[in-house]
Prior knowledge:
single chain, mainly beta, Neuraminidase, Immunoglobulin-like, 4 domains, 9-stranded mixed sheet, 1 helix, disordered N terminus
Amino acid sequence: MKSFIKSFALSIILIMSGTSFAQNVDYSNFQSRVKMPSWYQSKLQIQSTVVTINGFDNFLMGVNFGEPHVATNPTDPLNSAAAWNISDAFYYTKNGVDWTHSYPTFTGFAIIGDPVLTFDSLGRMYYLQMYQNGNTYGHVIARSDTKGDTWLNPVSSDAFSGGLSDKPWITADQSAGPYSNYVYVGWRQFGSSGMRVVRSTDRGNNWSSPITLSGDQGAYVSVGPSATTSGAYAYFACSSGGSVILYRTSDGGTSWSLMGVVCTITGPGNICAGRYTVKNCLRTDNFPRMAVDNSFTSTRGNVYVTVAGNPPGPDNADIYLIRSTNYGQTWSTQIRVNDDNTTADQWMPCITVDKKTGWVYLMWYDSRNDPTGNLQTEMYGSVSTDGGLTFTPNAKISNASFNPNNMAVGQPGGENYIGDYIGNWAIGKTAINAWTDARANNMGSYIGYYPDYAMQVNPPLRAIGTTDSTTFSCKVPAIVGPYNDKVKFSATVDTLPTSGTINFSFVNGRDTVTTFPDSVILRVKTQGVPSKAYYLTIRGGGSNGAPAHTRHVQLYVGVSALNVGTNREGTCDFQVNGTTYNTRQLIIFPNGSNVNVKALGPKVVGGTQYMYSNWSDNGDTAHNVTINGALTLTANYKAQYKLILNSSVGNSFGGNNFYDSAVTFTFGVNSRFFNYNSQWYQFKGWTGSGVGSYTSADSSGLDTIVVKTGGITNPIVELARWVQTVIGIQNISTEIPKEYNLYQNYPNPFNPVTTIEFDIIKAGNAKIVLYDILGKEVQTVVNELVTPGKYKAQFDASMLSSGVYFYKLTANDFTSIKKLMLLK
Length: 824
């Protein structure tokens, strides 16, 4: 399926008010621009990053806001530019690999999006954005004559008061014909009927008055030859109701003629929020994208239109191509380009034709590899080498799959936005492609070549002497798409040596592969070079330089690397020659260097203490190592975890110490009864917190000492529970009684303290419990392990009510009950 209709500055939202969707809808009802996600406001400026999977590269530009377009300099195949939706998301490359994030300043224009790019025949770059200054809408164009390094002042190509403009497209006549380097811009103008087109005959400095054409949306412009003249025709394609229509000019844009209907088509996907959509209401469209063959091959002058649509029957969004071999006068039947034969979604195509080979390149979103879930998506492409009659087997352009719903931005109209177009540009036997990709669950901005090759260089590092030689393997293990070009390798060094030479050559003089898989061997030779770590860039490229890929390897000349760190990365500290580090370091030393390494510690972080154990080479805490080759050292630290023991009355041991994770340790309180600030307290047990902590099973308080076996794996807290109580029991005689006895308390009656005496003849637990007159347990007076002897316990009943109570002594097999009376 699919879903898109592009709109304002970042797209616009159609307010349908419950009406059914129709292709001839009145677009003047479009009211609001695309809602940007919050992360965009804090977006960082990011240079390109190469994302390599299985040897295939995609270039990550950063995280922008959808809708990319890309163009390549016809005078320099390695100079390309790409832009995503909003003013600061512009990137350019001058070597086909490294992309610079830079953009022109559109002074005086409030940019609202929909970027498009083109080059003229002399390599001048044109970058168009929509703008809104108050109630005035239009398109502003900046030009670079220096491949993107510098920009001329931006110029407005048009201005319209009171109505929105939408989805502009730009193209330049790259021929040597009568309208050479004319620049054309077409768009949909709201607030007035139909489409608009303007032209510049002086490299974008001045622009004609807009010409109005009939149509709904999708104003795509292209330039092509006639049978006798290069650049004789310019074309303007757009939707009109359920059809695609085409206009043509043969006088450089002075006037335009309606050529007729290209095709009729049912839009892709399902209707959601008044739009054609796929997935989770992701908007798409059935607007035309167009390209013309300007090559001097047998297919010269062919006009191609691609659209996304549903065939008759169930929802089954596909990519279609329609071609004209007579300059737009008549059109072929629709050819389905995607060859998956599934009901998964294919949507949002883009198209380009190489001006030398005449090859037709297409790219689109494709979910064929998730035919059941119809969610996971990749970028797919195909190539026609016979003028659009047939296409090569479809192949992946993106090197990872993604769920586009994970980058969708909800819109006020109810649909979801991931951008309304993507872009590609032919460069001989390959094309460069730009798209928006949710593999990281954001609007990642990616670029990739197609057809393309994988590239591997091994090993990543070689160590040699100052006068020595070594080799690297440069391999193309696989290709994607109909790649039938060569791959030529070359190498450069990051810094020339201050003396001596580093020379590169290929074994047997062979620096190129033409069959795949295959490889070549790069030889690197040093002659009297100073000891140093050098970094080599090995580059692969097609016959015109593209596709371009690089790999970086290290060459250690007379030096070796000390790879040093700890097993507690980012936590524990160490020193190398007196300099302290916290993270692993790769430090280069001349061979024969004597280096001092030292482990620091202990290091306490919260409830964890890291104690130095040993160096991986079994050296002392501080010791010297001699560097004569690659050496990896690790200072190992063991973790100890803190036991925090909280006891309100003190009388504890074993707490607030660090313990090894697998070592048994003991903690506890020294006695069950403790006098604190002239008040007696009784221990009632432990409450633990943290994984592996100890909590008492009851409140008997008999577990005064806890042996923690197996250690702990994290910090824990133990709380000793205490209650105020009587003074406790006292041994009042060393005489060993002949029999058990429980004596009458005294005084009795009492208020509020009384004394209870008892005799014990055998070691064990002695327990005295107080009961009320109904036999309900009120309080434990004594619960203690005792040895034979005579004892007394003071009992404080200040918290009880007056009345008759009973106290019961239980000791081994002995039981005795007495009555007492509390009078207040």
